[in-house]
Write the structure tokens for this entry.
Amino acid sequence: MTSEYKVAVKQSKRKTASIYIERDGSLSVLVPENTTEQEIKEILKANEYKIHKYQAKRELLNEKAVRREPVNGQSFLYLGRNYYLQYNGSAKEIEFKGRYFYAPEGSTDRLNDLFKEFYRKRGYKFISPRVNKYAEIMGLKIDQISILELKTRWASCSGKKPKVNFHWKVMMAPASVIDYLIVHELCHFKHKRHNADFWNEVDKYYPDYQKQVSWLKENGASLEI
């Protein structure tokens, strides 16, 4: 039964219903205004097989998740490659040099926070110019770019500002995956739904997108500190 999953229902001025399975396994159900609770249950029931099939695959991939320890020599990801942790008495924050991440001596308990800040800072410097580059190509203007902790998605966007947000974890993925996520979000300013027009738009600006989608599905669980 789909009742075992966390379900978020969002009603809007749309004509059809859509179901999205978020990165954490929760379900987002987008339905037209005035859709009844019983109708929502029927929508979930009709898609029960597809939901369980995807969830089973997601759980299998999550078994591949890397469990990292805060010890010297432990590898951590940055732009798709592994680099090694080394505690250093002179480091004040996470410092990236050569093949190593240097962390302050005695920072084991706060290592996660230090890495999050490192990915946020590096993320803004790395992602911002790439967003602006693709936005210019696509005839868009983005007012705000943020690197933060998103609950369920790798990236999101809002047309009111307009702005785009990226999870700091994407800085662990290869640059090609980040570029795909950028194009994906920018295409939403032209097509809100994941329909054929949307994916045609993505393909126009990033023809290699299917390879990046597959990479995220297969390796997304490893993008953890």
